[in-house]
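Section 3.1: Structural characterization of target chains.
Under the original work plan, the team committed to producing a structural model for every single-chain target entering the pipeline before any wet-lab resources were allocated. The record below documents one such target. The sequence was received from the expression subgroup and is listed exactly as submitted; it comprises 645 residues.
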Amino acid sequence: MSGPHHKPKVSEREARQVAEAARQQAWHKPSFAKELFLGRFRLDLIHPHPLPGAEDTERGEEFLAKLRDFCETKIDGALIEREARIPDAVIDGLKELGALGMKIDTRYGGLGLTQVYYNKALALVSSVSPAVGALLSAHQSIGVPQPLKIFGTQEQKDTFLPRLARTDISAFLLTEPDVGSDPARLATTAVPDGDGYVLDGVKLWTTNGVVADLLVVMARVPKSEGHRGGITAFVVEAASDGVTVENRNAFMGLRGLENGVTRFHRVRVPAANRIGPEGAGLKIALTTLNTGRLSLPAMCAGAGKLCLKIAREWSAVREQWGKPVALHEAVGAKISFIAATTFALEAVLDLSSQMADEDRHDIRIEAALAKLYGSEMAWLMADELVQIRGGRGYETAESLAARGERPVPAEQLLRDLRINRIFEGSTEIMHLLIAREAVDAHLAVAGDIIDPDKSLGDKAKAGAHATAFYARWLPKLVAGRGQLPTSYTDFHPKGHPDLATHLRYVERTSRKLARSTFYAMSRWQGRMETKQGFLGRIVDIGAELFAMSAACVRAELLRSQGDNGRAAYELADAFCRQARLRVEELFGRLWSNTDDEDRRLVKGVLAGRYTWLEEGVLDPSGEGPWIADATPGPSEKENVHRPIR
């Protein structure tokens, strides 16, 4: 068995190669966001806005009505927050309602909801209790149902999906105490043994792991005769001998989250429970997350709606200096930001989700942008809400109620939303992931030029290929429809704000973004991947442009349906104006920043050059290792696994 000193030793280059091998390499379907990063504003890919079918809508609305009644009558969010646990009766009720099977096909006993309506359901539930939303999301978005839906055999679907649709809760186990976003160092092993495998290892932050019945576990299969080996996905029964939930973790938010540490000691798993071939585990995980990530922006959009409602009601009744605080410009600007951004988040979410449902587009970048943008903006909105509420925003709902005021959980909202910037790919990792996809076309034609392993002959061929590609591509970045004042005029109907001007801006700016990316690749070449500050800003610009596009398209959809069209145009116009200011700031920081100085300063910090600055305080942290020992072996702790039956 491998102890903590025998974990896979992986170089930076090897880690990148593992991640690259797990990527979906080809682009078989069009992608609006991919084209946007290449300087091609393909409005035709998202406008007219795609719509769900009548049957899907009817089924979705019918379930939402039942779910709303359940949330209003059966879920006590304050109780879950106070006791840090979702009552078993609530989970049993969700099972009876069919909420565990929202995304599972009806042939297996599920509800067969579309991504659009699944998102609406998560937003609704999470507004009452984000912990319940997280439980349902982790179960269906990244737990056993999603990878089985895409990669499972018919036998596996027949065996597990009926259980998952009605009774069994699932969890996704990838992270380890010393392995986060770098899966090349995965230490959990699955050693072939007869007609199955034997699992050994420790998994950390297993959302739903404390109460789960079925687990998706990522483990490394050693290469041997008849086994190609590599990181592999398995369905594991949580009640198997040798599976121990050693701890139920506690966090600053999501206090009802059933998240734990799970140890596997000589756990036998039949070969029939392996998902896909050996070595396909990371590809399965990444593909699962392509649409699975859409659950987080769903909950973020729902949080935005809640922030807006509370801000509107509070700011109308709270008076300062003779008028409602909403009419003071400093507060009004915050309310405007919350309203406009909530509209944009829902626009991004619904557009990405409907495209996922139709399966006509490759939405890997769109879903990643939705997760990145949604989690960052929802956090800012909740922070502004706390500021608008002042001292009451910092006070707990329970304390407010105790002294006779409305129990508004603003501080809880902030705490609960904070994890979304880390969950399912941190903001920093999302920047790198999206940047890699955004520059894919460049690497496809010029990658060999900067690859140190390629021969001079290969580099020469790549150079000729790249020259031909850029000779065709670069001239197209000089001019476009965004420079014509008559472009996109259908987005400026009479009596409505002018959204056409914003779409022209998006078209011009997408070309500017592509030119900036090309210039950076020319300047830094192989060092481009180390310029994480630059790449993050490139991605953030793309996210703003995507959100602007989605907001305009959604406003036009609502206008064409006669559904709050004028108001939607006003929200989209305000959002685009705000977004344009952020974009211009990001462009300025592409070339004028402190990235080099920051790198130098960090080296000084790590070298202990500034430890004198830390004097004068006491560290209350206590003793203990920074990273817990995850040496494989039998558990020495009580099993806190708590299946709900």
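The first helix runs from residue 12 to 22.
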